[in-house]
């Protein structure tokens, strides 16, 4: 059993209250401008920007600090093409057979269908996996704690970081996503979590006419 070891918290900087409120307000206003986009431009995005956003993502807290997230950032057109073909095959099954009417009704306001051109058009796809279990030096399974929660937190930070950098994203979840393991050569212990599509919106991009719930509906102070 390892013994705990502590170091001083040197990175923390407490803000004066007015600046704290100004920062919090600016960030909330910035995030309120985020929209999920499906019409992506083919304009390239520098890899360095994607890398910095991923550096932000991997600062997320995680169960037992196991950092179970794994990110694969894809710009290679041939890999994007394979992903599009595999995703569209699953999506056709979904829209034509698998999805119950209730689910299709819930999706109707988004105007989605089985065609996923953005998987080839967008300059970057980020495949996000979580480790269902780790593997030690001997190849033995090591239990992971709260992997779903952890990867969700990291994904949220990634979306915020990309938005802050002026990029648009789509959280895409073709189901099932096992094809990502095959195409990207990832181990069976890695579970695909989501496929984040990243790039610029098309100049004539339209988004669904939907809105966020009122603040008071989802937040309570006691
Ligand atoms: N994966 C499908 C369907 C879909 C499901 C949900 I829940 C969404 O919020 C959006 C779409 C698709 O991408 O079309």
UniProtKB/TrEMBL annotation:
One of its GO terms (molecular function) is oxidoreductase activity. It comes from the Bacteria. InterPro entries: Nitroreductase (IPR029479), Nitroreductase-like (IPR000415), Nitroreductase/BluB (IPR050627). It holds the Pfam family Nitroreductase. CDD domains: iodotyrosine_dehalogenase. Gene3D superfamilies: NADH Oxidase. Keywords: Flavoprotein, FMN, Oxidoreductase. Residues 32-200 form the Nitroreductase domain. This is Nitroreductase family protein.
């Amino acid at each position: 059993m390892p013994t705990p070891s502590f170091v001083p918290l040197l990175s923390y900087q407490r803000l004066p209250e007015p600046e704290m409120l100004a920062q919090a307000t600016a960030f909330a206003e910035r995030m309120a401008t985020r929209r999920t986009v499906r019409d992506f431009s083919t304009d390239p995005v520098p890899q360095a920007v994607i890398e910095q956003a991923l550096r932000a993502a991997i600062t997320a807290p995680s169960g037992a600090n196991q950092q179970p997230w794994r990110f694969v950032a894809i710009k290679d057109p041939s890999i994007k093409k394979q992903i599009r073909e595999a995703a569209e095959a699953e999506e056709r099954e979904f829209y034509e057979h698998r999805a119950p009417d209730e689910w299709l009704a819930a999706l109707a306001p988004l105007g989605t269908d089985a065609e996923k051109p953005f998987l080839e058009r967008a300059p970057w796809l980020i495949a996000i996996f979580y480790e269902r279990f780790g593997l030690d030096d001997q190849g033995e399974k090591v239990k992971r704690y709260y992997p779903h929660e952890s990867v969700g937190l990291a994904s949220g930070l990634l979306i915020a970081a990309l938005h802050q950098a002026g990029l648009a994203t789509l959280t895409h979840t073709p189901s099932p996503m096992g094809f990502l393991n095959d195409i990207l050569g990832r181990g069976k212990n890695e579970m695909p979590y989501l496929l984040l599509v990243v790039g610029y919106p098309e100049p004539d991009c339209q988004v669904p006419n939907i809105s966020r719930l009122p603040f008071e509906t989802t937040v309570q102070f006691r």
